[in-house]
Amino acid sequence: MNRAAVAVTSLALSLTATQARAQAAAPYADVAVSWAVVDNIYGAGHRFLLTLENTGDRPLPASGWELYFNMLGTVDSASAPPSIRVTHVNGDFHRLRPTDAFQVLAAGERLVLPLSAGGSAIKAAEAPRGFYFVVNGSPIPVGEVRVAPFVNAAQTMRSPRDRLAAPTAASRYADNAGLTVLDASAVGRILPTPVRFAAMDGSWTLDSAATIAHQEGLEGEAAHLADALAQVTGARPRAPQALTRSVGQDERSAIVLRTDPSLAAEGYTLTVDPARGVEIVGGGAAGVFYGVQSFRALLPVEAYAAPQRRIDVPAARVEDAPGLRHRGMHLDVARNFQPAESVERLLDLMAFYKLNRFHFHLTDDEGWRLGLAALPELTAVGGRRGHTADERDHLPPAYGSGPSPHAPPGSGHYTREQFVALLRRATERHIEVIPEIDLPGHARAAIKAMESRYHRLSAQGQEQAASAFRLRDPDDRSEYRSVQGYDDNVANVCLESTYRLIEAVVDELVSAYRAADAPLNLVHIGGDEVPHGVWERSPACQALIAREPAVNGVPELFHYFLRRTAAILGERGLALAGWEEIALTSQTHSPGPKEPNRDFVGSGFVPFVWNAVWGWGAEDLGYRLANAGYEVVLSNAGNLYFDLAYDKDPEEPGFYWAGFIDTRMAWEFLPFDLFRTARRDLAGNPIDESRYADAARPTEAGRSNIRGLQGQLWSETLVEPWRMEYMAYPRLLPLAERAWAPEPAWSRIDDPTQREPALMTAWNEFANRLAQRELPRLDHLLGGVGYRIPVPGAVVRDGMLHANVEYPGMTIRYTTDGSTPTAQSPRYTEPVPVDGPVMLRVFDTRGRGGRSVVAHVGRDYSRVDRDSGRGSARDR
């Protein structure tokens, strides 16, 4: 047979195999899944309808298949109809099987399954995801679930006590009623707000004649400035040169960078003088770097949209220094992986807004994202998710990641080279990276990876090596259930192999940081949400308790773990950080009072206080820990968790277990008196300030123990690439404002009746700053940032359309023919007459549109275009 014939035959065989697989998959791949919430007042959970529709031309068999999916609320197996059995596998993973009562689903038929699950479900983003059939051991994806619209209050009430309604066009209009568009001269030019800003007459011209002169040791800051200016002028300034007597303030075209040790280490002064050029003086290299960011902020926004050969920079004098040492942003890459490029963009924007701590959440139950050459299973098994019968090769799907173990965001990790490169990038931008290796809870990825390693080496007869890094006691019969639904996600703290793994990981971190020439001071070990019941029936723990006089029973094991881990870090010159649980007396994540643990005061532990939810009773925990002597980082979920939804709109993605967090809530957060802006509790009930009359306030010593603030971005819902920036921005900007800027004047007004108008005036200015300067710049910075575009407010009164937006000055466009507004639709600038429904939408300066809303005469409701929130190409 000649080669051509062989090729044709091979192709025919290949097509035959492909066709056979397609035919085998046809009845399953053609099943459409729909989800509809019935109500959220059914006991302690919600009721929903799961509909299977056969859209193909072949029947779905009555048996021989299983349907897997992820769903955050655990499905109540007792609620299933007789035709199916639903099983909670682990975490958010579920399995649906037909019973003997299941009948063939013929082509074109639909089967509606009434079910119930724990918790509430008030948002489209809570729909079950990642459906796939398993037939004869092979997975067959069935695509995305169809989500029925939320059309009544029962679907959006979290409980019978829920007093917070979903927003409407009219309610948004009322919320924005106190906002007005300000003249540009009344809007701050630099964010975060500097300590002192004095505008001067005239301007300094940035053009091709500009030079950068720098003091020795500031080469990196000078290069950073040169790169930034090249983006706005189209030409890089003359090569940065060392500062000499001949290059100084007398050279009008020079930008001079130098240090002055009399300034605070991160402080700076910036002078833009029409006659003498630009001078940036910092207390150290970091101060110079922050002065560079303020100089960049002074440049006209138009320069970021299109490079300009000549830019007039307004003359000004700035004196500035940060209010807090720790100005942080946290990113979880374990639940859903984020590529290195996305992390780089986050670091660049953090630097622009003077944030200086990046909390890198690298491991959790659903993923281990840092490669270790000595323990390849951590990423080969723990860094991948897909369909599996035994979890020997990878973890099961989570958060809808699907059956393929090769696809992000379920699978992925950073190589050592990528991690070192991220550390270098952060260090160049004066950002300290705090790695988090989550233990002893939230450790399922590591546990399963080390079990895979154990079985591999054990099969080779290497029993001692196999057990060297094992994290579970095989004879442990303890029963527990974590908050996220796992019964096997806690490392055993009584095994020496657990500490051997910690040593290996920490040594790898130290090596990587050394290779990047990056500072490593804190290692965050998580330490949170250890469920009740762990270690109680572990022989290894019973043996440890018997031989360790200092361990008085199972409740002391968590503190034993902290001491051992702190010692490992201390031997390497590192301090231990963790979530608030590391500084509390209670051992596990359980109800009851949360009190500071005096035993660890002075140990160097740094707790990150998170579980401060309005109305839950622990709102003052950060202050109590600081007053007790701990250095704390305020990470309050009720104001600073950026994975929470901006509002209650069913189409707004994000969680809401700690409430809804819009940009203003992050802006209102006061590090030293958070009660001044207490608005509503979790149920929507108004909070009177007197409610916190007896709550702890920071003492003078406690105030000095507050290291700073940190925004958190957890990634359970970051299932599409665009969602990371949508959830982070613009909320990162008010975070930067509160972490850097002086305490606002309105915060010092004791009388609430006088404070509220002052607060509103200040918020109006900040909202204008976003609309007029920061968001238009983000439209082009780094190629454009995908921040959340707000939904407009609107009402129709006496035949006239009135509309507004929470960032005054952003463009609102509308249509009256029922079509979705585009960047070419009429722009709303003042009330206009209408005689029917009006659809409105806000646009950025690129023509990217947010979600639409419909205003009616006498009533209103929201309408959503599912891809419009991220600005689809068709709308540009």
Describe this structure in words.
- The protein is an alpha/beta fold.
- Among the domains are: 22-162, Immunoglobulin-like (Sandwich); 196-320, 2-Layer Sandwich (Chitobiase, domain 2); 789-875, Immunoglobulins (Immunoglobulin-like).
- The protein contains 21 helices and 34 strands.
- The strands form 7 sheets. Strands 17-18-21-22-23-24-25-26 form an 8-stranded parallel beta barrel, surrounded by 5 helices.
- The longest helix has 27 residues, at 3-29.
- The two termini are 56 Å apart.
- Residues 6-15, 245-250 and 860-876 have low confidence and may be disordered.
Output the keywords.
alpha/beta, Immunoglobulin-like, Chitobiase, domain 2, seven-stranded mixed beta sheet, globular
Number of strands: 34
CATH class of one domain: Mainly Beta
**DSSP helix count?**
21
Unreliable parts? 6-15, 245-250, 860-876
Strand order of the largest sheet: 17-18-21-22-23-24-25-26
Produce the secondary structure layout.
Blueprint lengths: L2 H27 L1 E12 L2 E10 L11 E5 L13 E7 L2 E6 L11 E9 L10 E7 L2 E6 L2 E2 L5 H4 L12 H7 L20 E11 L4 E4 L4 H15 L4 E5 L11 E6 L8 E6 L3 E6 L2 H14 L3 H4 L5 E10 L5 E7 L7 H13 L4 E5 L1 E2 L2 E2 L8 H4 L35 H13 L3 E8 L4 H16 L3 H4 L29 H21 L5 E5 L12 H9 L9 H14 L4 E5 L26 E4 L11 H8 L3 E3 L2 H4 L22 H6 L31 H5 L1 E8 L9 H6 L3 H9 L11 H27 L14 E5 L2 E5 L6 E5 L11 E2 L3 E2 L4 E6 L9 E3 L4 E3 L14
Parallel strand pairs: 1-9, 11-12, 11-13, 13-15, 17-18, 17-26, 18-21, 21-22, 22-23, 23-24, 24-25, 25-26
Antiparallel strand pairs: 1-2, 2-6, 3-5, 3-7, 4-5, 7-8, 10-16, 14-15, 14-16, 19-20, 27-28, 28-31, 29-30, 29-32, 32-33, 33-34
Helix pairs in contact: 4-5, 7-9, 9-12, 12-14
